[in-house]
Design goal:
Mean pLDDT of chain B: 78
Oligomer: heterodimer
Organism (chain B): Kickxella alabastrina
Order of helices and strands of chain A: HHHHH
Number of strands of chain A: 0
Number of helices of chain A: 5
Organism (chain A): Kickxella alabastrina
Order of helices and strands of chain B: HHH
Protein name (chain B): Protein transporter tim10
Distance between the termini of chain B: 60 Å
Strand content of chain B: under 5%
Shape of chain A: flat
Structural class of chain B: mainly alpha
Largest sheet of chain B: none
Shape of chain B: flat
Mean pLDDT of chain A: 91
Helix content of chain A: over 70%
Protein name (chain A): Mitochondrial import inner membrane translocase subunit tim22
Radius of gyration of chain B: 20 Å
Radius of gyration of chain A: 21 Å
């Protein structure tokens, strides 16, 4: 069999690959991974700005640095996890809404934003979910309008 | 490894049922058959072309956005086209079934 790394993909292979990359699950997963990366960067920056827990000043400098870096890393990872979940939920729900409606307009973003905001605020009860839904929907509608205003 | 999974999956075009032959044609008239066959094939070709043109225009008007920001079809458009084609064929099938029933009832 010929080497798949050195030949052009056939029509069937390209069609199958397109079918995979256009599926909602793949889009959600890919967005989750991208969100994880962005969350890492964001968390690193945020941990520098935020007030950090008091450090044990009696320990040696090397120990202090290690503690601070470990704290930054933890904050980074937790922020990355939150970003990944948010991105995966948003991307997956937008893809599903778009497949269901068979239309491509701004209401897909609004609905996906509402679902994401509501899911992330699930712990705060129905009122918190409503507020989260409205807020995230407005935010994603704004971003979507800005991205497509020149089409 | 990847090609082997999909290598054997080439699709054959569905065998379409032959159009109804000319009524009243006997088996012995060999001279008319090629002409009749040719006419039937031409008619079928015309029908298929007409159906294709109508289907393309209908689904294009219904599904394709006027916003040409990208050359690829969005997910909404591909889903819409799938549904449009399936509905068109289903409508065709049901209409021809009803026509067949009506013509049978009239006989």
């Amino acid at each position: 069999m010929s080497n798949p790394f050195t030949r052009m993909p056939s029509q069937d292979e390209r069609a199958a690959a397109t079918k995979v990359t256009d599926s909602c699950a793949f889009k959600a997963g890919f967005s989750g991974i991208a969100g994880y990366g962005i969350g890492l960067m964001f968390g690193l920056v945020l941990s520098g700005i935020e007030f950090s827990s008091p450090v044990d000043t009696t320990a040696s400098t090397k120990q202090q640095i290690k503690t601070v870096i470990k704290d930054m890393g933890n904050k980074s990872l937790s922020s990355a996890k939150n970003f990944a979940i948010m991105a995966a939920i948003y991307s997956g729900s937008e893809c599903m809404i778009e497949s269901y409606r068979a239309k491509n307009d701004i209401y897909n973003s609004i609905g996906a934003g509402c679902i994401t905001g509501g899911t992330l605020a699930a712990k705060t009860g129905p009122r918190g979910m409503a507020v989260g839904c409205a807020g995230f929907a407005a935010f994603s509608a704004g971003i979507d309008w800005y991205m497509h205003k020149d089409d | 490894m990847f090609g082997g999974v999909f290598g054997g999956g080439s699709q054959k075009p569905a065998q379409s049922a032959p159009m109804g032959g000319m009524p009243g044609m006997g088996q012995g008239q060999g001279q008319m058959d090629p002409n009749a066959q040719l006419a039937a094939a031409e008619q079928e070709m015309e029908m298929v072309t007409d159906m294709f043109a109508r289907l393309g225009e209908l689904c294009n008007k219904k599904c394709i956005l006027q916003r040409y920001s990208d050359e690829d079809l969005t997910k909404a458009e591909s889903v819409c086209i799938d549904r449009c084609v399936a509905k068109y064929f289903q409508v065709n099938r049901e209409v021809s079934d009803k026509l067949a029933k009506l013509s049978q009832a009239n006989q």
